[in-house]
Amino acid sequence: MVSGSRRPAAVEAAKPDVNWSKGSDPVQGSVMADNSSGNQSAYSLAPSLQVSAVKTSTQSAYADSIGLTDTVILREVVHVIDDFGLPEFAHVAANYGQDRFGYVVTPNVDHLIRYYEDASFRAHYRAAEFILMDSRFAARLVHMLKGVRLPVCTGSDLTAHLLTKVIQPNDRIVMIGGSDEQAKEICGRFGLANVRHHNPPMGFINDPAAVESCLQFVEQSGPFRFCFLAVGSPQQEALAQALKARGVARGLALCIGASLNFITGAEKRAPVWMQKMALEWLYRLLQNPRRLARRYLLRGPRIFGHLRRSRVVLRKAAQSS
Fold first, then answer.
1. 22, 54, 286, 305: which has the highest count of C-beta atoms within 10 A?
2. Could you tell me if 237 and 123 are in contact, meaning their C-beta atoms sit under 8 angstroms apart?
3. 182 DSSP 8-state letter
């Protein structure tokens, strides 16, 4: 295992301009204005990631992929979820290859709220190649309010499955986030001999130099089979979109949140019966009320109104690929 304690040398390949600014724009009064400009709302935790404006043809292709028009995409908040359960997507991930770059996002209730309120976060999701429903509670809520049945493929289950069933000992794996001890434990437990690990400092997303160091570490570690981005949301999604915009990295990146903590035992996951009853959020709240009470009890209820005012589209596997 190689740890990224030093800042890597500069990458010579040309990249489009990416500007990490420390300011944030006020929340726009119009969803259409936000969707057109990609302005970041004051709600977002990460600095805005500004990439080149999306061309109309690309927007039309995106709208085509979910069966809607550009006008609807601009005027409404549209949640897109790909039609993959764990077995189906594990097969897709296993065969993704290392000659291109794509990334996976795993929305839960907190992400859906941020997606509704923050245009820059919507941009992170729209640039993702795969969007997998992470929350059984959110899936049930969508079915109740919108009449759409969504498959669930949690980031934690997917990460564990890839480590135990898919990844081979000599596959190049990149881990961003987690401690050195966690990285060593994962290497030892799963017999991994080709891991590159980098743990950026707390608050790195506000430091352009630290962000650049992290991006270059991923790019110089490729091509990789998988890159696990475990630095929390929206930081991990912002990194993934930046990697795609720069066009250097090759392989499949997965935004997996706290999955490494669950695998190594740093955090305890809910019992299976609570997971099946969509009560994993309650278990986490009881385990850590000080950290999670605000998220689950104060912000969480916003999801009911947000879902009523938005669309949910189940994108079929052929479209998402």
1. 54
2. no
3. H
**Is 80 exceeded by the pLDDT of residue 280?**
yes
| Distance of alpha carbon 142 from alpha carbon 133, whole angstroms | 11
Rounded Cα distance between 130 and 321, Å, is 8
Q: How far apart are CA 16 and CA 266, in angstroms?
A: 38
pLDDT for 72: 83
What is the rounded CA–CA span in Å between residue 222 and residue 22?
29
Q: Record the tokens describing residue 204, joined without a space.
A: 């790195």
Query: Residue 58 has what pLDDT?
Result: 54
How many Å separate Cα 125 from the centre of its chain?
7
* DSSP-assigned letter for residue 233: T
The pair of structure tokens assigned to 84 is 């993959």
Residue closest to 280 by CA, chosen among 313, 264, 304, 258: 258
| 8 Å CB contact between 48 and 120 | yes
Least confident among 19-28, 44-53, 181-190 = 19-28
Classify 251 in phi/psi space as left (phi over 0), alpha (psi -120 to 50) or beta. left
Q: Could you give the 3-state DSSP secondary structure of residue 205? A: helix
CA 288, 294, 297, 303 dihedral sign is negative
Q: How many CB atoms lie within 10 A of CB 46?
A: 23
What pLDDT, on the 0 to 100 scale, is given for residue 40? Answer: 45
Longest dimension (CA), the chain: 52
What is the separation of C-alpha 310 from the centre of its chain, rounded to a whole number of angstroms?
Answer: 20
Average pLDDT over every residue of 46-58: 46
CB 222 within 8 A of CB 174: yes
Distances (CA, A) of 162 to 23, 106, 112, 287, 299: 38, 15, 25, 27, 32
pLDDT value of residue 35: 54
Quote the tokens at residue 214. 């992290």
Q: What is the distance between the alpha carbons of residues 142 and 147, in angstroms, rounded to a whole number?
A: 7
Q: Are 66 and 78 in contact (CB under 8 A)?
A: yes
